[in-house]
Amino acid sequence: VRSTTTLLLTLVLGLSGCTERHPAVVRLLPDGIEEEPLELGRVSRMAFSPPAEGQVHLRFRCPHDGSSLWLGCGLTGKRGSATFRAWLRSSAGDSQLVFNHTAAPGKWFEGVVDLSSCSGRAVELVLHSKQRGVAATAAYWATPTMVAAEVDRPSVLLICIDSLRADHLGCYGYSRSTSPTLDSLASRGCLFSRAIAQSSWTLPSHASLFTSLYVKSHGVDSGRTALRPDADTLAEILRRNGYLTAAFVTAPTLTPQFGLAQGFDLYDARCSGRDAAEIYGDRTNPCVHRGAVQWLRRWGNAPFFIFLHYWDVHFDYNPPAPYDTLFDPEYRGTFDGKDFLEDDRIRPGLPARDLEHLVALYDGEIAHTDRYLGMLFAEIRRLGLGANTHVIVTSDHGDEFLEHGAKGHGHTLFQELIHVPLIWVEAGRNSGPATVERPVRAIDIGPTILDLLGLSVPPTMEGRSLVGLMRHQAREQTLIFAELSAIKGTRERLSAALFGESKVIRSALTGELRAYDLKSDAGELHPLEPEQLDHGSALREALTRFLGDESLRLEVRVVGTGGKRFLLKLTSADSLTRIDTYELEPNDWFAVTHEGRSVELRPDCTPGDIDGLTLCLPSDTTSFTLAVRLDGRPISPAHVILGRGVRARSTPLVCRGADRRLQGHPTIAPDVPGVYVWTSRERKQQTTGAPHELDDELRDQLTKLGYLR
Ligand SMILES: [Zn+2]
């Protein structure tokens, strides 16, 4: 979240001259007050708490064109009430009450003021709030926003269909007719045949989509993490540049608690709640459709960025008629697509006929969602917004149907989970059908949107614009990474690197690296050694560099008592990636030799002194030897203490980084001379926010999906 200085400046510039066009979207924020995303009842808005006296004065000039002023208010907490009033006051002093609402806690209230009566005149907006039975800080105004129609600037519609595998769409070569709407969309635009999501479950994948950062950079990788407030999101950038921003999301893992609401004037997650599920018979397509269409009818004439998230393709697979029998009308078995995760019968060995039926139900959900997209696009055409809106359709990950012995998603980085659709129709440009076969990333979507809108891409974004590829310009291949951690409660972390048809997947738990040639082994069933693969060694190195900031750290500490002369020599099989000293002083001597594979340390240990080194090993599998001499003789193993206090069995110590004996942090006794050796894994510390309190309903939902334990 950044300050709104830019927008206020835009407002000032917009008013400075008569010939200057008034921007279509202007937010009115009192001086010195910061807005922040605030959630009430699963709806987040950019809001501020008024100063203690409860009165805010905002002076501005009413635009000449028929603008409207949007106002919203809400009360946090569980009890009490507050009255919110707003007046428009002319320079002549007459006041008009334009907003009057008594609010109960936990819900937003909104109203729209027609500004045509004050057209061209300077006015003052007076906001007043008075609360009963609650602290003054519980009352919030959503940032008042003036909106006018503007046809010149293109808008953006970004759609994510949760859990949608690319290979189950007609335009990606699927045999079933699951996607007539998307096929037709692809025929008018650009289809990226090999788009890769940056993770394989909803939350980290969306955090990457919204920030154009890899998971290791944004740090949102479990149900207990949230995007940090200082992250700069696509919605924030577009909002700063005069776009009205809205999101309608339907996943419990996308509720505002997870920090993804930053920069959205409206972030509506009500469709993810149980009430919505009950109203719509456990289907969310009608709910998100209704919200989106209402919003577009009201605000579609201003430059907008709207994000729509459809959830029904996500398990359970229970599409309504006729989609429940559309692709498998003959089935007479017992599977109905419900309790997909909990049903233990769905595992390797499941009769092929039943598996076929589950896939047919999944395909039915896709067809059902495709029909809703058809209705949405028809509405956009009816509103006359079609030609001026960039339309992007993608997914956050796929789903597995026992291809690698499991089901669902969020447990591997195989292609069925990270190969997602990406279809792009540029505003005012019927360029299709065009296909880009170069592999691209979900983190490239944000920079591409900015590039198409003529906005600069912040250097902090890790993705890059695809506009050149869409215009058939040659470009070098991109290295692509995907990551997955905190897998369903385990300590496993997977990371994958792709280049062309080559892919490697690394397990952090075992250090194992598996390589796949996607050309000859599209199903990733025959792992190779990286050296057997085109670019395999380069991919391994690239992955090591990518993960460099979470590499394994080998800690070595020496505790001396006066007069003891230590000499340590550590030799590693691979070059050490980094060497840091610990408390070394000029009298301590150390040297790095053998092209960074060997380090010698001769500490000058005074009593109670702890000297040492921190060495980063390139991978868990790197082996090393540590030889220690004490007063010229090899040290006794009893004086070499490993992680959690275990003593070495022999010296010199010969280990691999992943050695279990090294894990943990021994307690160092400063009065007993000896050498302490242990490993730690330090990731680049991204301060990740923690989600605001999860209510019982959300906690249940996340637990049921397997994201909380
Ligand atoms: Zn998802």
- Mean pLDDT over the full residue set: 89
Q: How many strand units?
A: 38
Oligomer: single chain
Give the uncertain stretches in residue-range form: 1-20
Taking all Cα atoms into account, the compactness measure Rg is 29 Å
The rounded distance between the terminal residues' Cα atoms is: 31 Å
Number of helical stretches of at least 4 residues: 13
- Ions and ligands: zinc ion
Kindly list the characteristics that best describe this protein:
709 residues, 13 helices, disordered N terminus, alpha+beta, 14-stranded mixed sheet, 6-stranded antiparallel sheet, binds zinc ion
How would you portray this structure in words?
With 709 residues, this protein is α+β, with helices and mostly antiparallel strands. The protein has 13 helices and 38 strands. It starts with a helix and ends in a 5-residue tail after the last helix. The structure holds zinc ion (ZN).
Nutshell version of this structure?
With 709 residues, this protein is of the alpha+beta class. Residues 1-20 have low confidence and may be disordered.
SSE layout:
Elements: H1 5-16, E1 25-27, E2 36-40, E3 43-48, E4 55-61, E5 68-75, E6 81-90, E7 95-103, E8 108-114, E9 122-132, E10 139-147, E11 155-161, H2 180-188, E12 190-192, E13 195-196, H3 202-211, H4 215-218, H5 234-240, E14 244-248, E15 266-268, H6 274-279, H7 285-299, E16 304-310, H8 352-382, E17 389-394, E18 400-401, E19 407-408, H9 415-418, E20 419-420, E21 422-425, E22 434-436, E23 440-441, H10 445-452, H11 467-470, E24 480-484, E25 494-499, E26 502-507, E27 513-517, H12 536-546, E28 552-559, E29 566-572, E30 578-582, E31 589-593, E32 598-602, E33 610-617, E34 623-630, E35 633-634, E36 640-642, E37 653-656, E38 674-681, H13 696-704
Parallel strand pairs: 11-16, 11-17, 12-22, 13-23, 14-15, 14-16, 36-38
Antiparallel strand pairs: 1-10, 2-3, 3-10, 3-15, 4-9, 5-8, 5-10, 6-7, 6-9, 12-21, 13-20, 17-21, 18-19, 24-25, 25-26, 26-27, 28-33, 28-38, 29-32, 29-34, 30-33, 31-32, 34-35, 34-37
